[in-house]
Amino acid sequence: MKYFTRVTWFALILSMSVIGCRKKDRLPGVTPINVIVKTSYDTDGASYSFPLEGISIKMTEMSNSSVLSKQTDINGLAIYNNIMPGTYNIDAAITITKTQYETITGLTLDRDDVTFNASLTNVTLNSTTNNTLDLKLVLGKIGDWVLKQIYYAGSHTTNGAVFRDQFIEIYNNSNKVLYADSLYISQLSGSNTVSPDFSTGYFINNGGVFQGQWDWSKSIGMTIGADAVNKYVYAKTLFRIPGTGTSYPVQPGESIVVAATAVNHKAPYTGALGTAIAINDPSLTVDLSRASFEIYLGNLISNPFNSDLDNPDVPNLAVIETGGNRDLILDNPGRDAIAIFKTNAFLPLFNQTATGDWPRYPSPNITAITASTSLFYRVPNDVIIDAVQLQHITPGSRVPRKVSGVLDAGAIAVPGGQYSSQSVIRKTAKVVGGRKILKDTNNSTEDFITLPRSLPGAFAE
Questions:
Q1: Cα–Cα 20 to 30 A to 205, which of 162, 198, 248, 388?
Q2: CB atoms within 10 A of CB 238
């Protein structure tokens, strides 16, 4: 790895300062700025020399979603001259082939290539800020299971099914049979405050990945410092696929669909409370009557939705934590993060008095725990197989990230926004022997596109 001398840095900064922007690019009263993006690798203490040249850098201006793209030079630098001040998301990524990786590390890789990612979110850049940005790339977690399709937007509130037709599709991206037994699905907890009050001390304010997110190290009972944010996520809802270990085999290239309610939402039906549930435009919604699993809360809570039927032909997920919801309810505007994982830890079923192997904590703004305080399981990043950070389509309404770049270095949203009938779906990377291998670079911005009409079992080409 090469390092700049003090003289080299001085020469670089001097050269940047004398480059003037064209008059036609200037806005009245706004002074363009220069930004240096410095990249390096987090190799967990190992001295691997991964390439610094050719790392793709994208700076996205949040007010208008304009993207400035560059590639790093041999020193791992990307220099942006005369760009407009603003609030930016900065992403870095590089894909390294199996041969490269094995040559550099001496380790055996069980896939064709790997992708290193880094990101900074909601970074304010102007003439008074430090505009030299350090991005440390990490090797994202890649598992055999992937979140294939997330239908969070729902459909039209009067002509469609609102949120009743939401579902999550999980795909076997490997070349071997996998068993869905004991796979956990979780919506992650975190602050959804767009403009947090940093003076409270409850929010992270370091300009990094978790800018504006809860500082979980401040939660009552938390004793692990910064690791509380960097090495864990916090489960808002938690559901587990049942089975004895080999009850639910999933073939390579096949998927399972977890429905909020496993009925045909294209047709009217009678709800659990005996009242009719109509549908005005069947084309806006989906048939989930043949889903692999459903989430049913009607026998667990006192105020279930009329729409939450129990389909006897579709197995129910074990409910660990409802998050106060009356069904599986994904955030229609897209402010969720979804994770799947497996663990040997004991996590008791909903409403059981057992404590469980993992501790639970309140959000950092809670100053005293009472019987009504919401507590969230602290889930180690190490057990998570896949995670996707969703976001609001409108830049000004986007909320702080709930997952680190190790789990998902990007974020994804449907362009139609809430109740649009659209879903996010993972791209197809290649086809091997008729089996589709889905793209998994650990960056949902790059890995997903939008399906104009959600459809269980569909593929994005």
A1: 388
A2: 24
Q: Which long-range contacts (CB under 8 A, 24 or more apart) does 298-304 make?
A: 298/272, 300/350, 300/351, 301/326, 304/272
Task: Give the Cα separation of 287 and 230 in Å (integer).
Answer: 40
Chain segment 276-330, per-residue pLDDT in tens? 999 999 999 999 999 999 999 999 999 999 999 999 999 999 999 999 999 999 9
User: Where does 357-447 show beta strands of DSSP type E?
Assistant: 360-361, 376-380, 384-389, 423-426, 428-432, 435-438
**Domains, the chain:** 6-139 (2.60.40.10), 141-461 (no CATH)
State the number of CA atoms in the 13 A half-sphere of 347 facing the CB: 28
Confidence class for position 426, pLDDT limits 50, 70, 90? very high
Cβ proximity of 126 and 250 under 8 Å: no
Structure tokens at 311: 């389909």
Contacts of 116 (CB under 8 A, 6+ apart): 41, 50, 93, 94, 96, 137, 138, 139, 140
Q: Which two tokens stand for residue 356?
A: 């469980």
For residue 297, give the 3-state DSSP assignment.
coil
Ranges of beta strands (E only) in 17-112 are 33-41, 56-61, 67-71, 77-83, 86-97
Contact indicator for 170, 387 with CB cutoff of 8 Å: no
User: How many C-beta atoms surround the C-beta of residue 133 within 10 A?
Assistant: 23
pLDDT in tens, 1-37: 433 444 344 444 434 443 334 444 455 668 899 999 9
Residue 121 pLDDT? 79
d(CA 56, CA 72): 7
CA end-to-end distance (rounded Å), the chain: 39
Residues in the chain, how many? Answer: 461
Structure tokens at 92: 């870095």
Token match 């670079």: residue? 441
